[in-house]
Amino acid sequence: MALYREVAARIQHQIEAGLFAHGERLPGVRKLSQTMGVSVSTMVQAQRLLEDNGVIAARPRSGFYVCQPEVADRPLPAGGTSATEPVPVTTGEVTLFLGQLSQQKDYTQLGFAIPHTDFLPMRALQKSLAAAVRQFDERAAGYTSPGGNDALKEQIARRMRFAGSVADTEDILITGGAQEALTLALRSIAQPGDVIAIESPTYYGLLQAVESLGMKAIEVATDPVEGISLPALEMAARQWPVKACLLMPNFQNPLGAQMSDAHKADLIELAERYDFMLIEDDIYGELSQTGQRPRSLHSFDTVSGSGAGRVMYYSSFSKTISPGLRIGWLISPPAWRLQLRHLKQILNLSSNSLAQLALTGYLQDGGYERHLRQVRLRYREQIQRISQAVIRYFPEGTRISQPGGGYVLWVELERGFDSLVLCQRLFELNISIAPGQLFSASQQYQNCLRLNCAQPWNAALDQALFTVGREAEKLRRAG
Ligand SMILES: Cc1ncc(COP(=O)(O)O)c(C=O)c1O
User: Fold this and answer.
1) Beta-ladder partners of 109
2) Mutate to test the pocket of ligand 1, among 182, 212, 318 (most ligand atoms within 8 A of CB)
3) Which CATH number fits domain 3-66: 2.40.50.140, 1.10.10.10, 1.20.1740.10, 3.60.21.10?
4) Which element (helix H / strand E) includes 418?
5) What is the average pLDDT score of the chain?
């Protein structure tokens, strides 16, 4: 066995034996290498291996910490149920209110899934922004070329290869975040009154887009491990004139489900058979906890050839670099290229040129992969810590999802529980959560809630989770 592997195994054994507690900082690399009688470079390799295996995690400028143990195999939330018929969507004002709360500095933000700046590459991004300002000449100050900045589209096309997707830059459209990409995709495929199949539960922003375009949603049962149920989707497509299915095959929000490759290939085949389009939201695709970037649904469309042209894909840099830049992208089959550019032009001519310049510089500089590598491991640690706190503080019988990526947790309390009432109580205690009702067109999931785990772990966060658990228990007892 290579020496660094032996050293890693020894450190892991020491952690398991309780020599280093979970959450404790490991001694510095020099000290550890001296104690173990190995060179600094061997110790660096050993630490990297432990980091890849999720045993320790690096914190910027602070060193390595021991991760929480995996949450044992606990029963998962039940997942979603299908609706019997398509319905017009009305999402109400709770999301607007939550959005306002997300700006409040004195709130613990467990509601909206916005990453705290601690998880964003702030310094590198500031440098790229400053460089972009210097390059902001006559050309850059105007609208970008149709579809967006060409160099940025090239960077995106390269990154798409990690997801197995082959994309021509001509088929990439730069958008104002994923939300605009979603609206463009829906507008190009369907008309008001048309039926869109959605996962249940699903991210409320998707429901809002369907609502704003006057389309109807048919909810399809979605499993916390496997994702959307294909038999349930087939049943919906047999009964109703489904125009498109809108879904998150990788690290579904809110369940964290991850569709297998076989499932993805079958889904394309199903869409082909029942003649509907697939709209893929892949915003969390780069945040796999294992570092293994899952394939996009899109990659099965273009590579297999069967049903090619069935998938419209979109994503953005909001979860990994910065939501404030408002840059996303949409990849469409070639036949849709012109129509989408036309729609984009009508909507807002082109996306922000300065943000595109800065992002291009950041991606070209090559630090993105390193950032992703760090942040994926940190999210894994966050998910573990917050899951542990939920197990410790929430009422007996509470179930939590076990996502393989992304940074949200879906929490299921006992039947009859009303998470909207909990949410209102918590507002007064300066804590925000996302109540389960927001994730359904028919206000199902009252007994569920979603927690945002992209908040730095500290005593205040632990205390806030304790408070959520305590208030949930009070409500449960009150009946
Ligand atoms: C699944 C999903 N899609 C889309 C969005 C919107 O992303 P953007 O900020 O890029 O518009 C979000 C934001 O939370 C999301 O979670």
Assistant:
1) 432
2) 318
3) 1.10.10.10
4) none
5) 92
